[in-house]
Task: structure prediction
Amino acid sequence: MGRIAYVNGRFVPQGEAVVHIEDRGYQFADAVYEVWAVFDGKLADAEGHFVRLERSLGELSMPMPMSRAALTLVLKEALRRNRLREASIYLQVSRGVAPRDHAFPKDPVRQAVVITVSPVDRAASEARAAKGVGVVTTPETRWGRCDIKTVGLLPNALAKQKAREAGAAEAWFVDELGFVTEGASSNAWIVDGEGRLRTRDTNANILRGVTRRTLLEVIGDEGLQVDERPFTPDEARQAKEAFITGAGTLVLPVVSVDGKPVGEGKPGPVAMKLRKLYIERAKETAI
Result:
């Protein structure tokens, strides 16, 4: 069966799904998005993603396109129609369709809502985690509101391409002070030489990762120390462990930075334990 997408109130075959050429998300990146991991047909970290969606929309002076309850029903119907239990589900909300003008439409227009669902091979994901991945570093080139989850992702796409060409899985942005901000599609972490977990605080110009937030709860339950302060690429290479977090990667060990090994050059025990605990928590709380 082919994939089914939701576009502006209708479920359609994904190959036939279209958006208007004057959709402001297409022309101005005037849109936000969210991605949920799906375990056994249920949305992981649902509350966190809804809260962040509402915040992102609010920062762009947009309302929710429908209530949380209605959106939840639509997301679950998209999963049902795609007959997927292990998946990733993508939601995009734009300001809508209007004649091209940089300023917002004078009269309110209907927001555009798109949902797509992609299958996830959990066995392949676990094999990848067991091996670990590499990251490369790249100068921070993004705009000053990375806390808003907009579709304006060209710097992220360029960073991901740099990583792919280097045989790595992710790129870490490095600011003008030499500190890692976050990944192109993930939050960045290390376990430093003293065994403390370190990750950038969200007061910096980074996205408020939902997986990051849940993992902090898991870490607190485990009684582990967390130091929310930045680290440099050199500190990452000298760390005991490193990993990234996100809805697509969950908790994924990093074994090299710019081609140089982190720790022993293999997934460490802390990252692997946190991955296991995060997945357990995500499954328990999924809706």
Summary: The mean pLDDT is 97. The first helix runs from residue 24 to 28. The chain is about 30% helix and 25% strand.
